[in-house]
Each structure stands twice: as structure tokens, then as C-alpha cells.
Batch of 2 targets.
Target 1
Amino acid sequence: MVVQTRESTSAKPYILHDVDKREKIYKRISWQPFTATKVDFITTCMIGDRRWSSFVFEVKKSSVQSAYKQQAVHFIGKLLLDQETFAWQPIARYLETTPLQEVAQVLQKSAIATLRLKVDYENRDLIESLLGNQGKLVMEKVIALVRDSIERDGWPITKVAVRYVKDPEINHWQYALVVLFFDSDFDSADRYLHDFYAKLDILGDTLNRQQQDILRRMIFFDVETAVPNG
Amino acid sequence: MMSKPLYPMVEPTTYLELADELSSRIESASRRTAADRAYYAAFLTCRDRLALKNYFTPYYDSRDHDYVQRTLREPNVLGTYGNQENRLRRARNCTTYKTCDLNPGQTDVRSLDWMIRTAKEIIKRVDALPTRL
């Protein structure tokens, strides 16, 4: 979608390359009560000597779509109060005047940039040697599932860490631990993890026998949170 | 006449009752012991129930920790939910091996309440499994 940052602009929009900034905005949006949203892209353009940024997010199907939209507009107002370079007025106007269906359609056609999921590997060499080639494929599918959960379901995951773990008691017991970082409290993250188990079970059905064995024996899961309470 | 055993047999789920009792105390030793017992209640109950229901044959030594987790995660046992036992173990390892302050937000550190709840849920699910013929 193209949000007009100013009626008279002739500036060419371009992708916001500042990943940290995008993630910061994404975190703040996905934390909101209407977590069924996702940020689809963020663009910036120069108007005169000022840089303006715009973004849009999709609201999931709902019988109360207009209420969601109002919430969205209200939230953007709050979000942009301390982001003075953001083009809040045009975005709000766009959301107020455009049918939600159209927003969704335009989004599908013009995804300029998607948010990147940050995946940190700790002791990557050890993990790769432990998992082998088949295991690397399984891990890629797991990460794709995480990405899908963020993009399709709006899960507030900010980062993924893949850690190499060696059990302190049992000799030779080692595995990869996939830690999902949630921008939520622990109880919410724990619920998301339980939902993730269901997705992993479905993923397991699509794997060959060797890959299923790797998923079962060598890859475990946990969560960490921004607001710990568990 | 048989002498009284030094350690009479134990039903592992009674470790959970002990964990519950200890969790209400404030001393760190009690709470860490409760965390350890919560894990062992889940682990030993799973091991014994899975063996009784013909899901696997235990070694009855430390190899069973890995073996139980692997078995729990089989699709027709608990599926990916079996991952919870691993979380519980790592939380227990923390309280057992680290003597420093443990705070929420630190890697693997989980509340005692979460550990006891999780142990109970794992046991409940394993109890509900049918016997394999």
C-alpha cells in the first residue's frame, strides 16, 4: 500500500533500512491489545529537508472491524506523539477513509519490505555439527514456523536465540534449544509456546523419519520475556 | 523376620506433595529442594508409568532422563508437549547447581509455582495415556 505522506509530494518512497527502528516500532505495535495486527512495511521519504516515515498494519478479520480500525487510529496517534518525524496525520486519514478490505488487498499487492526476524545462534559450529545437514533443514523449518507465527498470527516475538546446551549431569546429552523472546509477560509467552507445540506437531507430520527423530531428540524449546513473572 | 527397610518404597507423586509443602516456606534450601522434587516427581512418575504401560523399557539409571524426554515427545505419547519436561529439568538444574541469587528473567529460572503446576500437568497427561498392547 502507498500511504500519501503529503498530497503534493513527488518524493520516491524507499525501504526503511534501519532494522532496529523497525523492530522497535513493531514491538510497540504488536504489544497492543489488538495483537492480531502485523506491520507490513515501513517506508520513508524526504519532503523538503525532513524525512517522513509511514507504515501500515493489517487488522485480522473480525465482526467488529470498524472498532479495530478506530483502535488502530487511536494507537497510531499515541505511538507517533514521540515520533515527530512520522507522518501520523496522513496515515490516520487513510485508515479512517479507506475500507479495511481495500487496505488488506493493497497490502498483499505491494509488500515493499517485510520485517526480518533476528535469529542469534550461540555456538553455531557446535549446533551445526550436532544437528548435521538434515537437522539444519529441520531448524530452518522451525524458524520459518516462528516467522509465520509473527507475520500471520501477530505473535509478539522480538527475537529467536538458538543455544547449544550440554546437560550438567548426563554425559553426552546435548541438544539445541530454541528460545523465543516475547514482548509480553511470562504467562502470555507460555500460552504462545503451548500453541507453538500444536504447530510443531503439524510440522512433524511433514518431515521424514530421520528429521522427525532429530526434532524429537535434539531440538527443544523455551521462552524468555520482556516482562518476566514466571 | 524381615527387617524394616532403610528407605521404604516411594510413590514418586508423593514428592509433589512434599514440593507443595516446602514451597510455602521461605528458606531458599526448602524452595530449591521443592524445585528439585517437582522435577523428580514428574520424571520418575513418567518413567514408571511409561514402563508400566509398555511405552519403553527403562535403564533405571541416569540415561533415563534423556530416554523419558524422547519417549514423551513421540507423536502418539505427548507429542511436542513433552518438551515441558525438558523445561522443567533445566529449571531444576538451575536451582540445583547455581547457589547464587536466581531472579525472574534469568535463563532457565522458573517460579516454583510454575514448576509444580507443570509437573502436575505432565503427570496428568501421562496418567491419561492408554496401555500399549
Target 2
Amino acid sequence: MKAIKTILITLACITTVATSAKVFSADDIIWARYGDIDTLDPHRSTSTLSMQVWNQIYEPLLARDSEGNIGPNLAKSYSVSGDGLTVSFALNDNIKCHDGSEFTSKDVIFTYERAFSTSNPSNTKSAWGPIKDVKANGELAVEFTFNTPFGAFIPFMADPFASMICDSNEKLGKSYGTTAAVGTGAWKLDNWVKGDKIELSRNDSYINLGRLADNKGAPKMKRLIIKVMPEGQARLAALQTGEVHIAEPPLESVDTVKSNPKLDLFMADNTGQDVFFEFAISRPPFNDVRARQAVAYAIDPDMALDIVFEGLVTREYCTVAQGVMGNDPDFCKSVGYKYNPEKAKELLAELGYSVSKRLEVNMMTWTGGNREKLLQVFQSQLKQVGIDAKIEVMDIGSLNARVKQENNITEGPGSFDLMGWSWYDPDILYQLWHSPGAYEGYNTPELDVLLDKTRSTTDPKKRLAVVQQVQKYLIEQAVHVPLYTPGWMWLYGINKNTTGLKFEPFNQPIFLDVTIK
Amino acid sequence: MTNYLVNRLFGALLTVWVTTLAVCFLIHLVPGDPVQIMYAQSATTTPEQLDLIRHNLGLDRSIIHQYVIYMSNLLQGDFGTTIRGQQKVLDLILLRLPYTLWLTITALIISLIIGGVAGFFAAYKQGQWLDRLLMSSTIIGISIPPFWLGLMLLAFFSVNLGWFPVAGDGWLSLILPATTLAACQAATIGRIVRSTMIDIFDQDYIRTAYAKGLSKPRVLGRHALRSGMVPIISILGMQFAYMMGGAIVVEYIFSWNGLGRLAIQAIFQRDYPLIQGFILTFSFIVVLVSVLMDVLYAVLDPRISRK
Amino acid sequence: MANELHEPQNTNSYFWAALGVLDSTIKWLVKRRFLFFLGLLTTILVALSLSANHWVPFDPEQMAAGPRLKPPSSSHWFGTDEFGRDIFSRIMVGMRLTLQVGFVSVCISLSIGMTVGLVAGYFGGWLERLLMRAMDVLFSFTEILIALALVAVLGPSLENAMIAIGIAAVPFYARVCYGAVLVERNKPYTEAAISIGAGHARIIFYHLLPNVLPTMIVVSTIGLSNAILAASGLSYLGLGAQPPSPEWGAMLAASKNYFQRAPSLLFIPGLSIMTIVLIFNLLGDQLRQMLDYNDQGKHS
């Protein structure tokens, strides 16, 4: 017995010593989030969790100021030809990639060709637009030629999805995106411990050419540690003890943060986030518009949002969110669905379902943000009209893959999901609903024609009119049922000792000015 | 003695072997196409890639063939790769295993101390109020849902009073989860110690020791305790197994970065390679400790070794 | 003359015999009053839970039945949860789920376990060695691992949790039954039955089973409480009962975010689980004491 005790105690001591070494120092910014990135490769994911980190490691050609106006960044200027078919960029000189190599037009071409590769294109390839060709005019100039004019191209060039990937990443092979990534951003990748944390360190040769910060050079702090803490209470506690400087508090504890003298609460507005219901249309029941509309009539979003979010979010009636062109609550409300369980029952009866012959479906969403709670409220509302919805929650990467899968199978119970997308332009509707679509879901030739027009129309007033037509179509067909905004990560609890945190439009934090007392 | 050891070792190997069989074929219990479900989690797999994965896992070949592939990988140390994040399963498990062991062993020690002391004194004062008090508290002890106890400790001591961190890696964060785990098992251990000690106190040799004039502490400490320890060792293996099981839920509640929490996440994410690896590791550890305890028991109890 | 003497005595003796039985039953109940009390309590609880849906004040699934997260009050005896649902109604309906899960799991474990135990204990030989080895292997998996593994592949639901827990506990019941069969096998009446040429089935069902049953019943009551703990544990993790089921473990899971705002959310479901488990543990303890008394003529 004594022998066992000694061995065990020794083991315990060794483990303690090994694990209690302090890993974080006073020059670190520590930011805790509810989930992890999917990948370090801007072409392989669409989650906000991933995007916010890419925005630290990489830079896009252009950048937005606090009003959302597009200005220079890696590209010092750009020009669009008269017919709108050619866009030229002049690059800044002396930009270095993290491995020391020069950033030139070759890297821009590399990024474009990678996004358009036939074997493994970018997840957001369609956001680039109908590009015919890209060529370099020397080391510091690039020219994009289009098949048809595409107004949303310039705003896209300021987005993290269009981050410029240095061509030196090519020789990293499979480890690019998983264990290594080379960009031109303010922070260099040190280490990504999957499911645990991402460690970034200051890029000393960084020059701020257009990002939203007063600091025109390298970040003030030495390291940026982005931790994964899925439990809301744990994040809150870490904020309160000062263990973490920035974190998203759980929604139930927002008041606790507000009343804590050591913490500030920041709410990002105009995040461009739209949370909506979409349906798998490859099989019954949701291949029939009446089933989809039945769901839309059966739910009471106002009551649900009030119960779950207690005023922290806004009811969204449009398919593009508040702050984005095309958002017009009055118009969208007029074509939308009001809570009407009787109408829902009527529609279901037409399809052969009733309160006694119940419709069983799967209802999915992704983790966090009280979305599971929201689904529970919807579940109880749907139950009243005879729809038994089984709730499934998974992380965003899994949900994205699963929705695509559900859109392709022809057997099994109907499935629909609570999805969220954030975009700065109504071009998101093209990406979601123009064939083949981000999830290979609903599309029709008429819708495609309308969506093509949203891209080719350059006159803002005419474009708005077409966008509204698209919205009306989507809402009437009940394929995109808007619910609320914002939907995720718009709340930040910030320790008062941490100053200088700024947010570029659409919820992109910038750490260049951050100092910690 | 050797016979006994060989017997135990054979039993252990058999168990481990059956575990590999069970784990390998567990995947067939999944309703639907397991490969499709697994790779629903991965954003970029084409049908061709799915077929390749199916081929690599041997799912398109006979059952025997599948098992052979699985075992040969296993013996080379390849436990597969996780679906989310593409990490090597074995690496991930080895990273988190020490935390679980740390928690379980600490909890075991605590429960042994509490249960041992309580049981001992209950036996010593058998029939009196102390005995009755301790015994009734053990019935309550085994009736408390461990996850509820954990939640309440978390709510009261961490969230409310702030004495302990809500999550973390060090000794301070270990106290609450270890206490939770220990509390429920201490009750069982207490009862067993009590009944063992009662039997021993009744024995002739104790009476002889007193008759010889030895002092109470000497009798109790040297004679009673020593022979009392042996039956405790025999159940230690089982207690360890229960604790490892209990640790799974406790880790989840306290965000303790061990194997159990990893397993729960894996189950939610349908990360089957990780689940398989977890089951294998868990079983292996339990069997290992059980064999060690049996060996120890044989060493300490000469009756066994003489068989 | 003989008739006159008989008749009055016949009716009288039946009457006195019945009175005698009643008298000894009451004496026994008084002696075992704690057991009687527990049995009565259990029956009441079972009756309440089976009829719960009919008499609870609110629909357990109705959201916004009252203001959210309110503490116990006269209109909502146990308060309301984060959706405004009445907790008292949910607890009562949840009790039926709890008892159901425990009962079904134990039935599964009992039927499979007793089969294995009886067959292994009675037939002996290679069958005994094979079955008991299999039980040893299954036993070393530990219950929770088996349950987790089964739920992991079958998918989370209360039904799957019941089955998983039922299967996971089989080795335990098998071992106990096996041990009891061994004891009975060595008793004289078994030998006697064999020597008069009774068939296997007759011996197993007519002789062994009834004598093994008391032990199994005691073990089942303790097993019932374990099953309830395991099922609520799985539901707490989200691997058992799914929303909006008012299962007590699932209710505890939801309470995690509301410690400070609504502590009743945390106390009440947990206390309920503990109460039911405690009742069954005490019941099993009393039954075991009674059994020991019967077998060995001494209290334990």
C-alpha cells in the first residue's frame, strides 16, 4: 500500500509541475471564443470563427474604413474600365510575406488561380464573380478581366475571403491550412492546437496600409492568443478573473458584464448577419412550397426571440441584413409571413398531414448563441400544428457539410436548418441561391435570371429594384425565411485594462492599437 | 502464484482482444452509411474520395479483412485520424490521458482516506450513534446523482463564491471535480471497510493481542489495519474502473481537459475514429490497473499465492 | 346428530383462519414498518406518475405558461423554467419517464442476465466457462463505457439510452444470478429432483428459478436506482432524453446557465432524482435485511 501511495504521489507531482507552468505572459492579448477555426486556408471554410482569424494573418487587396467605404490596402489604388469589364490594381511596394519573401503580383495570381482551380476550387469561388482572365503587368500591377460587369467585385476585394495568400504557401503542401500559413498580416502564425488555441505573434515588419487603426506599423503587443472555450460560464469567469482580456459573454449573463466595473460590453452593430430557415428541397415534404410555407406560418419568431434573447437581437424580415443594401423592413414585411398556425394547418392538410397524422422532420442548427434554445421554442410552436421536429445541433463546419448532404439525398425525413450568413452586399443571395448554390439546394431558372441581373446591373437604383424582386421571390417561395439579426459573436466583454480594440465593419476585430495596462 | 498470474494475464489479454473486435465492428451498428455520416463532418469530400476512404477502411471487403487491416494499423500505433481537424487519434488521446489519470487517482486517494477513516471508526464504534450516523450518510452518498453534486459544487463554490476557477488546468481546478468523484465512491468504500473491520475485530487474534497486553493503538494499527487492507485492495481495481467511468461526466461538468471530455465531444461530433480510440484506451487502462491490483493482492495475501 | 356438530364448526374455522392470517400479516407489517412504508410510498409514486398527465396543473411542454425563471410561488409550486414552463408539472410527468426508464432497463438486464446465470450455473462445463468469461470481459468494460458506446452509434434518444443501460448492466445481474444458482445447485432438493428424473426445464423453472428470485429482486431494486442514475446522467450529457422531454437529467443540464437567476432550476430536478434513488436504495436495503434474516436466522 505504501509503495502504491509513493508511486501515485510522485506521478501526481510530476504531472503538476509539468502542467502548472505559466504559459501566458504579460505581453499577450488573450481572446476567448466559443469555437475553433475550421482551417487556416481562406478557401476552405466560410465560418466567422475562421474569418476573424484569417483577418489577422492575411491581408486583402483593399480595406474598409469605419463607414464601410472601400479604400487602399495591399493595393495602393485601383481603376475600373469604362465598360466595367477590366479592373486594374496597382500594388504597394515593399510588402513582405511572413517568411521574408516579397509580396508581388505573382502572389495575387497565385491566390486567384487557387480559388478557381478546377480540382479544388475555393468555397467562395462564386463571390469573385465572372472573371475571364487575370494577368500581371510587371511585379506591382495586376489586371482582372470579366465576362460581364460585376459591381460586387471591389467590395469583395476588401473581404477576408479574398485574403491574399503568399505563393510560398505552395511548397508547404498538405500542411498549409492545417499547421502552417504564410500571409502578409499583422500577426504571424506560431501554433494552432486544434480545439484548444491559436497562438499568433507580432509581425515586426508589418506596415499598416489601410486597416482601421491609428497605428501605422506592427501591433503594440507581442502575441495574440485566441482560445477556444465552449462553455459560456467559463468564458465569463475567465473575463471576471482577468485571465482573458476579450471574450463573448453568455447571453444570459450580459447584465452581469454590464454591472461589473472592471468590464466593458461592446455590441457590434450592422454585422451583416442574417439568420434564417432554409429547407432541403431534394425530397418530400420540403420539395413542396406549401410545406415550407406551413413552417413559416407555424412559427412565432417575435415570441421566440423575446423568450430566448430578451431584447438583445432584432427581428429581421429581409434576406439581407440590416446595414446592407436592399434591407427594407417595410417592403420585406409586406411579402413575408405572419404568425398564423391555422393557415399552417390548412397547408399541411393539403399535403395530407394533420395533428393526428403528424409530419416528422429534422431541424438543425449550429452550436452556440442560444440557437438550440431558439429551436426548442420553435419546436414547441411547430408541435401545435402537427409537425414533430427533432433538434440536431453540431458545430458550424459540420452543419455546412450536412446541409449540403441533405440537399442531395432523396430519402429520409424532411430536413431544414437554421442557418446564418453574413455579407456586406446583396451578392450573398447570388452565392446562396444561384445554381449550383453554396449548399447545392434550391434553384430555378427564373431565379437564376434575376440573380444574374443583380450582378450585371450597375445603376444602383435599378440594382436595388432587381434585388427586391429576388427577395420577394425567395420569401414567397419560402426557401429563405428571414428571422433575426445579429446572430453570432456580436457581443464582446472587454476588460477595462485592454484599450484600443477596434472593429472594422461586419464584425472584424483589429488588434493593432491594443494595449493592456 | 505463477498459475494465478498466468490465468489473470490470459484473462486480461482476452479482454483486450475482445475490445478490439468490439471496437472494430462497432461502426457497423451505426444506422445508415457510416462513412457518409463520418464525413458529413468534413466540408470537402467528393463521392470519389468517400469511396477511397471506404476502401482504406476495408468496408468494401469481408469482415475478416476489415479486422486484419484494423489490427495491423493498431499494432503499428496507428489509431486512425480524427475526422474534425485531421489529427492523429493516438496523439490526441495521449495528450489528454494524463489529466484523466490525475483526476481519477486523486479522487481515488481522497475516497480511500475518507471512506477508510469513516468505515474504520464506524466499525470501532459499532452500534453507537457514530456508526448509525455514518452508515445513514453512506446511503445518501450513493443516492446522490454525481453530476448533480458536481453542478451544485460548481454553482456554489465557483460561480457564487469564486473560490475555485470555473475551468482550468491546475491543482486548484482539480479540487472540485476530484471531490465530486470521491464523494460518491467514499460511501461505498466506507461500507466495505466497515464490514471488513467488524469481521476483523471479532477475530481471535485481535483478542489474543489485547490479552497479551498490547496497547489499543498498537493492536488497531499494526494488526487490524494491516489485515484489513488486503480485502480493500481486492476491490480497488473495481473502484478505479468506476471512477474512470464517473470521471467522464465530471470532466464534462468542470471543463476538465481530460479524456472523458474529449470522448463526449467526439460522440457529439460523430467522430468515430476518436470514439474507437477512446474505448480502446479506456478499456486498456482499466484492465491494466485491474491486473496490477490482482498481482498486488496475490503478493499481499499468501493464501492466493499458494494455490 | 353428527351433522349438527360439524356445520357450525366449519364456518367458524374458516372465519378464524382468515382472521389468523390477517393478524399475522398485520404483525409482520408492523414489525417491518419501514419496509411497509417504503412499499406504500413507491406504490403511491408509481400511481401518481402513471396518471401524471391527467392531473398536473399545466401542460409540461407549454412555453410561457408563466413568467420565465420565477422561484416557487402559489401559482407555480416549483417555479418556472427558462421558457416559462411550469416546473412542477414537468417534474411530475418526468417522474413517469424516470420510473419507466429504470423499469425497462432492469427488465432487459434481468431477463438476459438471469438467462445467462441460470444456464451457466445449471449446465456447467464448457458452457459455464464460456458464459462467465464473456461476462468477465463485458464487466471490465464498465457500464458507462458500454452505455456511451451504444448511444454513440445508435444515436441519442431515451429509448437507446434505456437499451444501452440495460445491456451494460447484464454482467452484474448474470454474476449475481450465477452465484445464487451455484448455491441452490448444491442444496439437497436439487439433487433430489435430478435423481427422480426431472427434466432440465422443470428443474430450472420449477426449482431453481423460484429460489433464486428473492435474491434477484433485492438486486433489482438496487439495480433500479443505478439505472435511474445512469439514465439521468446520459440525459444530462444530452445523449439520452431529447428536448422537449421533461426528463430530470435533461432539466438539470439546462439549469447550468441560470445558477444565479433561478437556483430552483438546479435544486429541484436533482433533489427529485436523489429522492427516488434513495427510496429504491432503502427499499433494497430493507429487502436484503429481510432476506438475510430468512436465510440465516440472524439480523445483519
